Fold:
Amino acid sequence: MKKPQILDKINNPRDLDKLTKDEIKILTEEIRGFLIDSISKTGGHLASNLGVVELTLAIHKVFDSPNDKIVWDVGHQCYTHKIITGRKNGFDKLRKENGLSGFPKPSESEHDAFIAGHSSTSISAGFGIAKAMSLKGKDNYVVAVIGDGAFTGGMVYEAFNNAGRSNEKLIVILNHNEMSISKNVGACAKYLSSIRSKPEYRNLKKVIENILNHMPFGNAIKKSIVTSKSSFKKMIYGNTFFEDMGFDYLGPINGHNYEDLVDALETAKAIKRPVVVYVDTTKGKGYSYAEENPGAYHGTPAFDIETGNPDISAQDSYSSAFGKSLAEFADNDDKICAVTAAMKYGTGLQYFCCKHKDRFFDVGIAEQHAVTFCAGLASQGMKPVFAVYSSFLQRGFDQVIHDCAIENQNVIFGIDRAGLVGEDGETHQGIFDVMFLCSIPNVTVYSPESYDEVKFSLEQSLYKQKGVKAIRYPRGSQNINHTLVCDKYEDYLMQKNSDENLIVTYGKVTNEVCQAVKELKQKGIDCSILKLIKISPIPTDVIGTAKQYKNIFVFEEVIKNGGIGQKLLSELVENGYKGNIKITAIDNQFVKQASVTSCYKKFNLDKDGIIEVILKNYNK
Structure:
């Protein structure tokens, strides 16, 4: 990447005021070059950020951050925003420990108005911020930037219904990048949009309304004009949803034409009440590989710029293992259905989709709907499997209880990214699913360590267990360097090395436990290992086995409160256990971005940490 001419001069948004039209164009090219170069080294969200460069510059040109508040929906669109708000020099540690977050984070900068790791929240948050500023007597604007599929989330419509009745200075920018609402087409639509997006149109409209208001028959004429205009717009646009909900509407605007964007945003600003600005952008713009395949470059590991090839193949992953196994079972079972919330490739369901397209359902970013949709399928004898990231299933908690568990529906959740995920930080760590799922009656939870155990857990869930089943598995590929295996899988595996010390664990942490046990043996301490595959309900004979040990150590990469360790402790005490038990988990905190290796070390879940915990708490 050649040395930037303009980008190095931008340290805060007001530096944009000094630039000419030609310099702005150079700046957009330099920002795209910077993003491609930087993300190729650190990994991150590439395609979505390449698509909003001009839009971000226009927003900061027209509005005065941080006095005006910018709320980013699906916060992975915020990289350009971070660059021009003084954080460019931190991009070498983007999504790294003690570095920049990959999402908006108010504790990181005063320019980040609201956290955004999940989607469809910006209008609700933005309206709340606008209302609070109004109550405090502040005369500032709130800009909510939504898109990239977020318009499929139900919260959007709840927020529109609420905010459209107000007079707050809330501007909603709908970034349409072929991932959400269908594109308006036709010469008339484009012509009307070019007029409506100019400040002159609004000014002329106000003049005409003022004249009509002072004419004897003005109100009747104005009503007739409004009625006919509404009908004409309905014919041209196909729907007037935004205006029906109480918002003014501008667009569509070319999201890569800086001057048009500035004009449209100035117009929206002049309205001084809720407005929707509809913007068309190209996801991945400026990098051919990302433009041609934006899904693959949505969230990407480090990659080679020249070839576009990432360093890591997604073929070898728990997601792919789950997706391939599900497709294989579906070959011989026409009741199996697969459901995703806009994450077909992220959850490995592309294999199922290719073979069984008629039983594959992408519901968009709508996890609550997805859960209840599965319950509906199950009520009619189908076998729905919803593959979803752990942190996103949190959004469907009520539906799991009310729509699935109460009626004991046969719904399966493939919980991807369970446990610590690393660089995506607090909003994406999958550390809460065990706590909330294991507290619900009629729910069985599996936590396999290997690809083979993923398939075993899926088979058990499809054909052996009744009610709600969940199979939680980690991000990335399996890395197993131990011999704690057997030919026949049961609900748990037991390796007896001691009559006094027992380690209970499950999932990926098992590998670290096995390495630690080897080194502890060299120090004269033997430990038996009990690895759970079905973690809830805890198998009855596990309690009887564990009760025989003097010292029990539990290691799990989930939130400690409500985890398996606490459930095991409770059941042991109820059964008269008098020994010592030490639970090592994530204790009452959110986990910031860092590598999974670093997170394991921090919470004593790596080999060395496990050894340290046992040595400190080992009771002879």
